[in-house]
Amino acid sequence: MNVEAKGQARKPRADGQRNRERLVETAKAAFADVGPDVSLDEIARRAGLGIGTLYRHFPTRDAIVEAVYRREVDELAGAATRLLASRPAGEALHHWMRLFVDYIATKKVIASALGSMVGGASELYASSGARIIQAISLLVDRAGAAGDIRPDVNPKDLLRALIGFTYGADNVGWRPSALRLIDILMDGLKPAEVRAAADQGQD
Amino acid sequence: MNVEAKGQARKPRADGQRNRERLVETAKAAFADVGPDVSLDEIARRAGLGIGTLYRHFPTRDAIVEAVYRREVDELAGAATRLLASRPAGEALHHWMRLFVDYIATKKVIASALGSMVGGASELYASSGARIIQAISLLVDRAGAAGDIRPDVNPKDLLRALIGFTYGADNVGWRPSALRLIDILMDGLKPAEVRAAADQGQD
DNA sequence: TTATATACGGAGGGTTCCTCCGTTTAACAA
DNA sequence: TTGTTAAACGGAGGAACCCTCCGTATATAA
Question: What's the mean per-residue pLDDT of chain B?
């Protein structure tokens, strides 16, 4: 019942897995109480591990951020289908965008990591960025098909906008500002008829 | 005819002014051919001056960026009134937002500097950030008064959006993406009647 | 010419990033 | 158990950057 195709691969070392886990948890705590710019050295130090060990497990900063926030990203991506099930596609998209802002509000690190993933060289592999793009694409497609928004909207544009809105998330008042911008953007996405109708109650 | 109120202040030293000028020009060249993240050490080195000299003239990175791009920022701010003179306020706002993107497209450094100014602690002094805010506020006020956009739009929100759109200006395709987003945002700013009218030619 | 406020220069300490490689240790076979 | 070996560890160390501090040099004004 060996899964290996050829040769005899060893099973991964137990200490390796333990340390990887330890690093992820330490990083999570460090992001929370030092801030999103905490140094990788600091994370290694807190974990009681050598810096070399950290770099072997996570060759880039984004890699460890991704590991830390995998669950959050999954939730956010999953919320897309959940929202679609319970309301019109246009509203689902609107809610999801607000949700995006709320997620970033608590975990600012995600924003910059997403930023470098979305436009990055390798968009192919199933990274967190890819899952988020899938989610927003689904919402945009459905909303477009339902006539809730114009049919020619580029989902990546919207994602860029969302990431952009959360840029500078330290400045006071950024959150309400981002939410207002989402409302405006959402209005701009609607075909003129829909807006006119919404303006006079529903028909 | 002494301008000084009290005591006898000396006139600024000639070498000081020369070096300041030299630093600004060197920085401009360095931003252009090394990139927006060129180190301050590198700029001082290229200028043939000590790092201490650079820091005395420009205590922060933003300070030197501001000196380098003062003219560009002035032009951009000035464009607001020029545009207002030649077309309806709503269109002027729309054009100005596109112009903003074009300016950033060539000088990426401005974006991050603006970012830290706009939300920064001291919004009071007449910095570049302040002049940009004044420009966009003027446009928003006029457009609101003319009924081209809704009257309750917060100009700082728009500026944040613009800065956000230009975030990640290295990624391929960011510029057309930013322009599309501006169009959408602009549509969202319009009162429903205006959009409906525009959709069917003009009335 | 002299006095002195101004400006210069760069050494140096602190931080972060990341690589490299000698040492340790877990997994597996005999 | 013991030996072999691949995997993982650790941290020294070089490079880059930031910024301060203070001894030295010089332009200005008397």
Answer: 89
